[in-house]
Design a protein that fits this description.
four-stranded antiparallel beta sheet, 11% strand, TIM Barrel, 12 strands, 507 residues
């Protein structure tokens, strides 16, 4: 009997942020460990490596609050590249070595010294091996990206340095409002600093392109993540105020968030500027289409965060201390996704359709045809009849044990009450809590969902200390890192067995 098309589509992958890779320099990077991880995924029969947004992070270290939606995070650059190119000596990287525990990102050391190291390399371009090629490639990078986003971002970062890291809305009025004379003056005054920030992005993209190419040649596709909103303190908002709901002084009128619910009594106040969707529609969603196009250069599959916001979004008056007072407003709806399909055709997209979903959101997801997300940790509640239980799935979805916003499965199970724990065990057919993690992974793999993605922490059976993020909290997030010796042959074989047994083995 011939296998159906549905069976052929079955696949699996691993969720692991780049910063969570092991390394010698305080944070995961595009280093030899990243290439080793790709090799591991290949040998484990996986098809996908899902990561988090790659943008430069600021206060709080969240990849969902980035200084640019187009730029890359300099912290993810492998510093050994500069040694290989003759720009630095090995000893000059020692300042990046961390005294902190190897299972945590050492943001303190990285923030203090990463730019310092890259600055030193930037000053040595003329001494590099193949200096003429590096300089020619750098000029080509600036030509291809400069007027699209790069020059605005580089000037934004140079100005941010000049103003001691302050948010752009506190800068002098002439440059805060981007008056022409001020822009010309600062472009000239900060020319060297602007060129440095362009160089940082050049190195980032050289390294990421090489890693992605290696992954694709190994049969591994990258699932990337696009936050629906951009940060207020970003080059995107500063350089393109017409895209956002701002007043004449470029101060937000309303900001993004979520209303109060069982998990957050005062709601979630994200503070991102909201879009002028009428303006975006008038321009044919030009800026958004540039953003989507950029994402598909970075990734093979795109997960669209907070999909509900394209149907309806929650608007909170600017200055409110909580999200308790706000209004739901209509988003662009299918018109936006129709523009994407007309421009790019059938691109691979995952809709992050979690949380409370209205009939109109469900209708929008169905109309796009994009697979939604099923999170097994959400399946076991008081009523024992959740839509996230595998027996309710259709095939057009991606199933996870948990996401970056969830606890690890071990930590999650430990936190459940006695009745919920019993239902978990009964549903999975296990007798003890020790068996729950592997049984939940099997439940994901055996489901009819086309794709199963498992966070690395669950394969490693780690507790709550390995959690990536607790939503609506600041500090202590985005820190977990995998230890160097945790990718064992035994684990690789076990993951390959899951993929083979349940028809998800990478072809």
């Amino acid at each position: 009997m011939k296998k159906s098309d549905n069976v052929q589509k079955r696949a699996c992958g691993v969720l692991l942020p780049v910063f969570s890779l092991p390394s010698d320099y305080g944070i995961g990077a595009f280093s030899k460990e990243a290439y080793s991880f790709v090799d591991f995924l290949k040998n484990a029969g996986q098809k996908y490596w899902q990561i988090l947004p790659l943008g430069p992070t600021g206060y709080g270290d969240s990849p969902y609050q980035s200084f640019s939606t187009f730029a890359g995070n300099p912290f993810l650059i492998d510093p050994e590249y500069f040694v290989e190119k003759g720009l630095l000596t090995k000893g000059e990287l020692d300042v990046l070595k961390s005294d902190e525990p190897s299972d945590k990102v050492d943001y303190k050391t990285i923030e203090a010294h990463k730019y310092e190291v890259i600055h030193k390399a930037f000053g040595n371009i003329d001494k590099a091996k193949e200096a003429s090629k590096i300089k020619a490639d750098f000029e080509k990078f600036k030509k291809n990206n400069g007027n699209k986003w790069l020059f605005d971002y580089a000037l934004f970062m140079a100005l941010k340095d000049m103003y001691g890291g302050r948010s752009w809305n506190t800068w002098d009025e002439e440059i805060r409002l981007r008056k022409k004379a001020a822009l010309s003056r600062y472009q000239e005054k900060l020319a060297r600093e602007v060129d440095f920030y362009c160089f940082v992005q050049f190195v980032f993209y050289v390294q990421w392109d090489a890693l992605k190419t290696y992954a694709n040649k190994s049969g591994i596709e990258i699932i990337g993540d696009i936050p629906i909103y951009v940060a207020f303190d970003s080059s995107d908002t500063w350089a393109n105020p017409e895209l956002f709901l701002l007043d004449k002084d470029n101060v937000p009128i309303e900001v993004a968030g979520c209303p109060p619910d069982a998990f957050a009594k005062t709601g979630q106040l994200w503070g991102n500027p909201l879009y002028k969707w009428d303006y975006h529609k008038e321009t044919g969603y030009k800026w958004w289409l540039q953003r989507i196009e950029h994402c598909f250069k970075l990734y093979d599959v795109l997960r669209i965060d907070h999909f509900r916001g394209f149907d309806e979004y929650y608007a909170i008056p600017y200055g409110n201390p909580t999200a308790e007072i706000g209004k739901w407003r209509k988003g662009p709806g299918y018109d936006f996704f129709d523009a994407i399909k007309k421009k790019f055709g059938d691109v691979k997209v995952i809709a992050e359709d979690l949380g409370f979903l209205t009939p109109s959101v469900l209708k929008l997801v169905k109309k796009t045809g994009y697979p939604g997300m099923k999170v097994l940790q959400f399946a076991f509640g008081a009523d024992d009849d959740s839509e996230y239980l595998p027996h309710y799935y259709g095939s057009n979805c991606v199933v996870y044990t948990g996401t970056h916003d969830n606890d690890t499965t071990r930590g999650w199970y430990k936190s459940l009450n006695r009745n919920d724990k019993k239902f978990v065990r009964d549903y999975l057919g296990v007798n003890s809590g020790r068996q729950v993690i592997s049984a939940l992974i099997r439940a994901a793999f055996s489901s009819v969902a086309d794709t199963a993605i498992i966070p690395m922490q669950d394969y490693l059976e780690l507790d709550e200390s390995a959690r990536i993020n607790i939503p609506s909290t600041l500090g202590g997030n985005w820190q977990w890192r995998m230890e160097k010796d945790e990718l064992t042959d035994e684990l690789c074989e076990r993951m390959n067995d899951y993929a083979r047994i349940y028809g998800r083995l990478r072809k």
